[in-house]
Design goal:
1 helix; three-stranded antiparallel beta sheet; globular
Length: 147
């Protein structure tokens, strides 16, 4: 009887552990270098004590490559920033990209593609993949953003 109870508890523990979502590993980057993040992934820049987390893509209004559009919209995403053990601050950023996913260096009025936080500049450099069709924009976990 005792063996059945222990075995049953073991099975329950295995199922609970298997159902937990895994957290992407914390990456490390150097100051003034580009780095790529997936949704929910965080990088830490040790020499300045800054954590940058790519929270999620909230919308992608870029014209997909299988269609001709008169105008292509921005891609919108959320990041969170934390300096040392301070408060976490969230920011919504937007950028336009070319068909290769590269963001322009110039700023557009009304479009915030960068944020200055605690004297450090965080800027979107690219958003991949560029949507080939409408279905690509639904795969929100497949995005990769270079900062």
């Amino acid at each position: 009887m005792k063996t059945k109870v222990i075995f049953s508890l073991y099975i329950v523990l295995v199922f609970i552990t298997a159902c937990q979502t895994s957290t992407p590993p914390l990456l490390t980057a150097a100051t003034n270098t580009h780095f790529v993040l997936a949704p929910e992934q965080t990088t830490f820049i040790p020499d300045i004590g800054l954590k940058i987390k790519f929270v999620a893509i909230s919308s992608d209004e870029r014209c997909h490559s299988k269609m001709e559009c008169a105008i292509s919209g921005p891609v919108t995403l959320t990041i969170s920033l934390q300096k040392d053990s301070g408060n976490i601050a969230e920011f919504v950023l937007q950028t336009f990209t070319n068909n290769n996913g590269l963001a322009p260096e110039m700023q557009f009025e009304g479009i915030q593609d960068r944020v200055e936080y605690e004297s450090h500049l965080v800027q979107i450099k690219s958003v991949q993949p560029y949507p080939a069709d409408l279905a690509d924009r639904n795969n929100l976990l497949g995005y990769r953003v270079t900062f």
